[in-house]
Amino acid sequence: MLVNTKNYKLFFLTLYIFAIALTAGCIKGNNPNQISLLLPQITNNTNKFQSNDANLNGCILTYDSANESISTCFHLDKKDCNINFFLNISSEQILTKRKNDLSFLNINYSNCSNSGLTLVSKYNSLSVPSSVILKDILNINNLSELNNLRISNTYSCENSKFTQESLTSNLFERLLNKEELLSLNSLEIELSLISNTTLACMQDLNISNDLINFLSKIKDKKYLTGIPCSNSTLSSFGKCQN
């Protein structure tokens, strides 16, 4: 009987040690625990989010005014979809230099004087920080108006129905990409994009034929900086389709 008692004690001691080891995670059962089940899901969801973010090529700026709400779509990745990207005239120094350089052009380049006066009027309406692109599309002139902007992302402007003919024209080919939008940030280019700027003026400014070609497509609305639409029924813009 003494032998049997010892055997029982040894058996229960072995079971006790096995239970502690299993609880502590030293011995793994055949079934995975909850954490190991969740890890693949977390990894997959993270990869999916990263992939989706990389595919967000539409940047929508919505401007809310007293009368209407206007959304404009640009071909920009999510990382570039912010207000700072558009603020090419961010300080008084930049605005003053633009005005001074423009005065010089108006005096010394007679072929550019008519369109130069139009650009003078545009610069005079701006207060810093400002964006010439947003001025051209939405007539935004100052910081208080910039504060009425909301920014969101979409997979593409086409996917959100901004590229429909009702919002563009039958001449429309494509939106400008990031590099092309950034290339517009100069006095000479802004002057060249004024509707009544002549070929003679652009040649006087030593703008290459390739660039003149490119700028002509922007002026003809074949290439667009952004596509605006209105979220209200009474507007000079087309009605948003999304």
Description:
With 242 residues, the chain is of the alpha+beta class. The protein is built from eleven helices and six strands. The protein has a four-stranded antiparallel sheet, with no helix packed on it. The protein has a two-stranded parallel ribbon with strand order 4-5. β1 and β2 form a beta hairpin. α4 packs antiparallel against α5 (113-125). The longest helix has 23 residues, at 2-24. It is globular, with a radius of gyration of 31 Å.
Question: Which short descriptors sum up this protein?
Answer:
242 residues, alpha+beta, 4-stranded antiparallel β-sheet, two-stranded parallel sheet, 6 strands, 49% helix, globular, disordered N terminus
List the helices and strands and how they pair.
Blueprint: H1 2-24, H2 34-54, E1 58-64, E2 69-75, H3 83-86, H4 92-108, H5 113-125, H6 132-138, H7 143-146, E3 149-154, E4 174-175, H8 178-183, H9 187-192, H10 199-204, H11 209-219, E5 223-224, E6 227-230
Parallel strand pairs: 4-5
Antiparallel strand pairs: 1-2, 1-3, 2-6
